[in-house]
Amino acid sequence: MKSLLLFLFSFCCLQFAFAQPQKLSNYNVVWTSQSKNSSESMPCGGGDIGLNVSVEKDEVLFYLSKSGTFDENNAMLKLGRVRLKLSPNPFTDVPFKQELRLQEGGVRITSGTTQINLWVDVFRPVVHVDIQSVKPVKIAATYESWRAEDLLVQGTALRENSYKVAQKFEVKTYNDEIGFNDDEVLFYHRNRNDVENVFDYTVRMEGMDSVKNQLFDPLKNNTFGGAMKGENMKPAGITSGQYADTEFKAWALETTKSVRSQHIEIALHSAQTNTLEEWKSPLKTIQKEAAQNPKADLAKTREWWQQFWNRSYIFIEGKDSTISRNYQLFRYQLGCNAYGKWPTKFNGGLFTFDPSFVDKKYNHTPDFRLWGGGTMTAQNQRLVYFPMFKSGDFDLLKPQFDFYLRSQRNAELRSKVYWNHDGACFTEQIENFGLPNVFEYGLKRPEGYDPGMEYNAWLEYQWETVFEFCLMMLETERYKGRNIKEYVPFIESCLTFFDEHYQLLAKKRGTKPFDEKGNYVFYPSSAGETFKMTYNSATLIAALKVILTRMLELPDAYLEAKQRERWTTMLKRIPPLPFQEFDGHKTLAPAVAWARVQNTETPQLYPVFPWGIYGVGKLDLDVAVNTYKYDPHAVQFKSHVGWRQYSIFAARLGLTEEAAELTRLKFKDSNHRFPTFWGPGFDWTPDHNWGGSAMIGLQEMLMQVDGKKIYLLPAWPNEWNATFKLHAPYNTTVEGNVKNGKMEELKVTPASRTADVILMK
Q1: What is the pLDDT of residues 210-219, one digit of tens each?
Q2: Band of residue 21 on the pLDDT scale cut at 50, 70, 90
Q3: Domains of the chain, first to last
Q4: Angle of CA points 81, 162, 246, to nearest 5°
Q5: What φ, ψ does residue 112 adopt, rounded to 5°?
Q6: For residues 205 and 324, what is the distance between their CA atoms, to the nearest angstrom?
Q7: Which residues are registered as beta bridge partners of 259?
Q8: Mind listing the pLDDT tens digit for each residue in 91-145?
Q9: Is the peptide bond between 387 and the residue preceding it cis, with omega within 30 degrees of 0?
Q10: Is residue 150 a contact partner of residue 173, using CB atoms and an 8 Å limit?
Q11: C-alpha angle with apex 149: 143 to 154, nearest 5 degrees?
Q12: How high is the pLDDT of residue 93?
């Protein structure tokens, strides 16, 4: 390690004007043959809309997905499928080309003298299809739906919603309303009020009826859908068919004559409204505005994608360039939900496809995804959002933060109803309304079992994962200097729960709330889903130490004296992290004691990531390295698959060879045609927590931060020549070129932050 001040001496008079390199276009995904089915689709999106685009049997198909399409059962429904057919058939011409154009954010399909551009307006929920042909063609645009009638949801199909298993009553996906409306196809799903939806059922089964009128309910009157129309296109009838395992109906629009140029718009809208007309009115406004100047809208959308790519990048040359290509491709998938009301789902995001192409045993509709649509599993969601700090995608964080703010009151009411104390209690398998998933809560419960607890071997006492999102909220203040006043009460409510609840549990066991040293007794607690019924869990201790410390570091404008005094006292009461020893090597322990091992996570390394108590440049690094190398569970569970975060651990511990190999495996092309449709891993395809954890690991290999310190190349292999731009705390960007393990060019903005940079090679 050496200070970068000496390193930069020879460059003090140089100004490096790094721009986003043209290398990005080299990462465009190009296919020169048509796709077999939807598993070979290509993502396209923007704002909060995602399309799965494929050309199959000389027809263009794409699924429509949008943030917030939660039905009565809390499944996340697709908005349908669109099929385009041109006559005469242009795909008899060669060469064929389908290209994801990253810098523009859209997909271009060309065949002979015909070109089709698909793009989504980033600022308005509209899908655009632009068709240009040298030869006149007739065009049919067909809207296809498998929800023209009620569908009985049975067997494993129940895993797409919040019920997960068969109930004593029928579970149905209720029909959409679809039809021709003048010269357009209008389609929508409006959640019914004459049936008990899963929110009502959850409230009733979890004993929260007494406060139901105070609870946030995202399902009531939720309405989503849209309208498809095209210039000089008229209704052309209703047909039916089958795609993969699912029967569908189709409403067709056709051009009235052969054309050389055609524009088709699909306006989408989702909202909770008291009446259907209140939903339709904004949809009409969206259509009207989109039709005024689509060329200007396209220019604005392309400009947004340009600035998105200029925010940050990592480009690796040579044989490992696949890593950086797939880094950019997955970041594109995240960028497609920049402005959604709801977070990007860990289990597929906006880009799921027919489930039998993931696993043949799931021969269900395209609405299917494992682990539900409205369920936001915390330990998986966090991996989707942590990489957005170093990539500078701070605007993408808002949907995840808003999810927790909307759920705060519901989580506080849980504490009040069940235990009569304050503070927000957030569980791991959490619904989009802040209560535990009803299946994970457990309905076959022993008499007298604590009604606030999940009767679940994996999830009992696992409440601390919310602090990782608290950390992200705090990081926005440190990275961007943002005012986080709206988040401070949320963080304080989460801290209040642990302060009051563990004092309550201690008093129930005896007369004193603290141990002989004046510390909390965190029993029972949990270290992830793995070490259960723990005494003083390492994950909880690390979380509380870091969050309390960071809260007390906030400027005085955020905390009054009484608040500061309370959190100072709480910090003093946090017990020390637990340790153990293997073959003479001191290691971190998951807890002081535990009753059983339930899953295969490695929470004893959570003090390394996400909590950053141990790592490069910090005291007792050897203890954390020993944990990685010698703890039998850490060794046994090591893998790159899915949410595994060993590439992150290795990077933060400075284990370059381990980090590089795990990162290669993480970023290896998926087993589907599109390279970053990873999965299913432990969840579903595309596996977004696979991609998120891969991004974090690569970023940490290149740059790590600790307070104001910026460590460069802490775990970067010499053979990876790269150009990069990443974000660091205090409104800082770091850009550079690395060659043969050495930093050849560097630019730190603002230049005053150069003094805080430490070069590790």
Answers
A1: 999 999 999 9
A2: low
A3: 32-279 (2.70.98.50)
A4: 30
A5: 60, -120
A6: 47
A7: 137
A8: 987 899 999 999 999 999 999 899 999 999 999 999 999 999 999 999 999 999 9
A9: no
A10: yes
A11: 115
A12: 77
